[in-house]
Design goal:
Number of strands: 0
Radius of gyration: 24 Å
Subcellular location: Cell membrane
Oligomer: single chain
CATH superfamily: MFS general substrate transporter like domains
Number of domains: 1
CATH architecture: Up-down Bundle
Low-confidence stretches: 8-13, 16-20, 246-265
GO cellular component, one term: plasma membrane
InterPro entries: MFS, MFS_dom, MFS_trans_sf
Strand content: under 5%
GO molecular function: transmembrane transporter activity
CATH topology: Growth Hormone, Chain: A
Number of helices: 19
Distance between the termini: 45 Å
Helix content: over 70%
Mean pLDDT: 81
Keywords: Membrane, Transmembrane, Transmembrane helix
């Protein structure tokens, strides 16, 4: 791993090669900035649990207990626990710094993940396994938000802030690469090695990637410090002079003294109070339900067809399309509102999932449609993160981006839980309807957020 020397103080010359005059790829420009390769690669490795643990729990529990409801509910419990603490961790990262908080939480996280994996391996009672799943979830934090915050800091320092769209799209592509290999690896390990073996791999990835990431100090965003100013005493000579009747600046001075009371500290505004944030998060909760619904129902479809061995490949097709979509989205700047982009991509995703359901049974056609539908996934995530970036102040950026991740996590938990219950009481065909229904229901919230922002703007 290359040394993380921190961001250079020079710009990337708008992506042009000085010697040839040819325009360079925007991704080549991003990685020409010192330190970016290191934190991007290590952050990608540390994110492997997000594509393997939820699915890994479903695969392991369904194999061990042959019950979709238990498997889906335990996966949901893990994901909900993760969602509950993600904003808290984000505030700690913003306040104390990524390294100081990360090295402590990461150590606890690894212990919790290993504890759950070994407990599942020896088949402890279900209530205890539920408790361990929740404890494991409470140690998780949004690595993607930490990486995106570093991108914002580095690009701003090097005069390349206009490339943030490209950087966020790249991170969405990396997310999808993780979701390409994660399900394939999880399904392969569960089917060919041991039903619980897929829980140990993301634990190792998190330990290695996270440790490297938190040792990279050069690109770590600084902690935004609050400067405290103590108000002068009422007996101070300057204060008495300022309050003399007739002084032209007396009113302004008294106002300043009033503002300074309480040591000059100002309460940090809650991220959720900014215009459009709540509808954005609701849209992300609902549309993210589609992905775990798709994973769970597709697992049931493949099991019913006795094709468990190709489950990972089938699941990965959606992520392949999303990766392609992310790279294409990041290579150009779309005109118009980011809210509009999100609504259009959500609409296209709804149609894609509906066609996948209609083609159930024809794996080749389903695979092709999964790739096409996947083209819309990363642009939705990138647009949502950019909306949050444009909405909240810099000192709350990690928290804001973590709320987006949290919304996705909450949605994922509900998706697996609801679909698991549906599959225990209906057919795989019914379960495969859930993805397009969830995405369709998210569109009104995106429209509401867009309307609120336009009205306030």
């Amino acid at each position: 791993m290359a040394a993380d020397n921190g961001p250079s103080n020079t710009t990337a010359s708008n992506g042009k090669n000085a010697s040839s005059g040819k325009r360079r790829s925007p991704y080549a420009v991003l990685f020409s900035i010192p330190g970016t390769k290191a934190f991007c690669a290590s952050g990608a490795l540390a994110r492997l649990p997000m594509s393997m643990m939820g699915l890994g729990i479903i695969l392991a529990l369904n194999h061990l207990y042959d019950n979709w409801t238990i498997a889906g509910t335990m996966s949901a419990a893990y994901v909900l626990a993760t969602a509950a603490v993600t904003p808290l961790y984000a505030r700690l990262f913003d306040r104390f710094g990524q390294r100081k908080v990360g090295k402590i939480v990461l150590a606890i996280q690894i212990v919790a993940m290993l504890g759950f994996a070994f407990a599942a391996l020896v088949r402890v009672p279900i209530p205890l396994l539920f408790l361990l799943a929740i404890i494991m979830g409470l140690t998780q934090f949004a690595f993607g938000a930490l990486v995106r915050t570093r991108w914002a800091y580095v690009l701003d320092r090097t005069g390349n802030s206009e490339m943030l769209n490209t950087a966020y799209a790249l991170e969405s592509a990396i997310d999808e690469i993780v979701f390409i290999f994660g399900p394939i690896l999880a399904a392969f390990l569960a089917a060919s090695v041991h039903p619980v073996s897929q829980l140990f791999v993301p634990t190792a990835a998190s330990a290695i990637g996270g440790t490297i990431f938190f040792t990279l100090r050069g690109t770590q965003p600084p902690v935004v410090q609050t400067i405290e100013v103590n108000a002068a005493s009422a007996d101070d000579e300057d204060v008495r002079a300022a309050n003399v009747p007739g002084r032209a600046d007396a009113k302004a001075t008294r106002l300043s003294l009033k503002q300074l009371k309480g040591n000059g500290t100002k309460a940090k505004r809650n991220v959720l109070t900014y215009a459009g944030v709540i509808p954005l998060l609701l849209a992300f909760i609902i549309f993210n339900m589609s992905f775990t619904a798709f994973d769970t129902s597709m697992t049931a479809v493949m099991k019913s067809l006795h094709l468990d061995s190709v489950l990972g490949v089938q699941l990965a097709m959606l992520a392949v399309g999303s990766c392609i979509g992310a790279l294409a989205f990041g290579s150009r700047e779309l005109k118009g509102s980011r809210w509009l982009h999100m609504v259009l991509f959500l609409s296209a995703m709804t149609v894609g999932f509906a066609i996948i359901h209609a083609c159930m049974g024809n794996l080749i056609v389903m695979g092709l449609m999964e790739i096409l539908t996947g083209l819309t996934v990363s642009p939705v995530f990138a647009s949502g993160n950019l909306v949050m970036k444009d909405t909240v102040p810099e000192e709350s950026l990690t928290e804001g981006l973590s709320w987006v991740s949290t919304a996705g996590t909450v949605g994922a938990s509900f998706g697996s839980m609801i679909t698991g219950i549906v599959l225990d009481h209906a057919t795989p065909n019914t379960g495969l309807m859930m993805p397009w229904i969830f995405v369709l229901c998210s569109i009104p919230f995106a429209l509401l957020g867009w309307a609120i922002v336009r009205k306030r703007g």
